[in-house]
Design brief:
The chain has about 50 residues and is mostly helical. Helix content is about 70%, strand content about 0%. It has helices at about 10-25, 30-50. It is globular, with a radius of gyration of 13 Å. The N and C termini lie far apart (about 30 Å).
């Protein structure tokens, strides 16, 4: 497993964390689950666009 440090705008961070809380609650690891899913979805989208 790897650690990934990224910088995002404060407002995006706030909205993302609120959305994660609504979907998963405050359970441990929820943020990592959501980030992993977001990255997988982005990769899939880019691959589909590339053909």
């Amino acid at each position: 497993m790897k650690r990934l440090d990224v910088y995002i705008p404060d407002e995006l961070d706030k909205k993302f964390r609120e959305t994660v809380r609504r979907k998963y609650g405050n359970r441990r690891g929820a943020l990592s689950i959501a980030v992993e899913q977001a990255i997988r979805n982005w990769i899939k989208k880019v691959e589909e666009e590339e053909g």
